[in-house]
Amino acid sequence: MMELDRIIHEPVRLQIMATLGGVDTVDFKFLVSTLGLSKGNLSSHVDKLEVAGYVQVTKSFNGKITFTQYALTQKGRKALEEHWLALDRLRATSHSKRKSQSASSSRHFKLPKVASPRKPRWNPKIPPSG
Question: Region 76-93: what's the mean pLDDT?
Answer without folding.
Answer: 91
